[in-house]
Specification:
The complex is a heterodimer of chains A (about 260) and B (about 250). With about 260 residues, chain A is an all-alpha fold. Chain A is about 85% helix and about 0% strand. In chain B, a hairpin with a 2-residue loop joins β4 and β5. Chain B starts with a strand and ends in a 15-residue tail after the last helix. The chains are: A mainly alpha (about 260), B alpha/beta (about 250).
Chain lengths: ~260, ~250
Amino acid sequence: MTSLATTLSHALIALGSVIIALLGSIGRLARFAVTALGRMVQPPWYPAQLFEQMLVIGYFSLPVVGLTALFTGSALAQQIYIGGSRFNAAATVPAVTVIGIVRELGPVLGGLMVAGRVSSAMAAEIGTMRVTEQIDALTTLRTDPYRYLVGPRIIAAVLVMPLLVLVSNALGVMGGWLLATGRLGFNSAAYLNTTAQFLKADDVISSMVKAAVFGFFIALMGCYHGYHSSGGAAGVGRATTNAVVSAFILILLSNLIITVIVFGS
Amino acid sequence: MTAKIILAGVKKHFGAKVVLNGVDLAIEPGESMVIIGGSGTGKSVMLKCILGLLRPDAGDIRVDGKSVVGLSARALADHQARFGMLFQGGALFDSLPVWRNISFALKGSAAERRAAAIDNLARVGLGTDVADLRPSELSGGMQKRVALARAIAARPEILFFDEPTTGLDPIMADVINNLIRTLVTDLKITALTITHDMASVRKIADSVAMLYEGQIVWHGSRHGIDSADNPYVDQFVHGRADGPIRMQVRKL
């Protein structure tokens, strides 16, 4: 009986310490986010840093995000065709493809690809700056690391992600159109016509809102994990992994929440 | 005359590990003080507490009589602007060329800042040719000198040196020591150096303090270190394994 009680109390202690650690990291993250957002709205601003980050996050992500959308749009059209044929509904390919791409796959896959590219790079760069004392050096050189490093990255990601997803959506639809007209025998003009008919402004707006939210999480996770990394090369490696994994989870979770709020009612 | 920097009962711990356990120290204006002590005795933590990068758990730190513990973000930035620091690894920004590293905290047009950078490069004995190189293209000794030029570029009132000669050959170490001594004297800067290199101590210091187990165990002038009637200082200065300072080494 005593041993059962001991085992149970050990289990409870272990569970408790996990919960405390989890709450602790949520608190640290919240404090980091609030500090970053608070500092971001006050000068000095660093337009050169902002421009560089917009280039890195937006422009250089175009190939990978574009290809992802193109391939996924094609595969989606193929599957909808196969599935739709069973109910004599193969004609729904353009409508379902455009809705699937714009509402969900364009922003989510684009967000995940950018998270993989950018969150990791941010965590590695800022983490290396942390362990080599470059962040401490910034503060002794009259430069606030939140304004110089974190602010431009978050602003850039929030600004360019919607544009990136817009391109991604267009290429996704194009992927579907290419496959449908090339392989499935759809008429090109009719396909595009149906696509335009079914696409509503709300779909595009929700897609861009999602993209902006994902951009925020992508940059926040990269900066947060890099900023708090410790313990040399291994620590930077851990920070990089944590940044990508946590950005993925936040993207998928916030996507679900936005989808339920916008389309659920 | 009041002291430039005063530490009174400063304590800092990380988890269960007590790093600073009541540090009391006063540094006079224009004085070059060197803190000696073995690895892991809390020297770097002490510097970071004075800079406001870390917040002490207890005690007070005063610069020019004003407490610097628990300042607001803006006041802390003003406080930090009075310091220059030479970091142990240099901490140069590897994405920027040398001249932009040096002029990082300076204002003005690019041409003015570049001229100021070259001027500060000359002070540490480096020519214009390194201005456009990246930090990764420099040797360890040159990186240290560039970092030194960056630390003095904004003409701070107080300079901190974190192990300035670590990782350098004895000749380059002596070059750095001479530079530090000259700069501190010429620019009338209050300097605080942490090191375990006795050659540095003899070159740089006006006064010396020894940190052991989170406390200052000895404080006196540079000339006093050889005759200090203190077993800790005596053991450290002569680099002996036997003495009151026990290293955590397992018996074979």
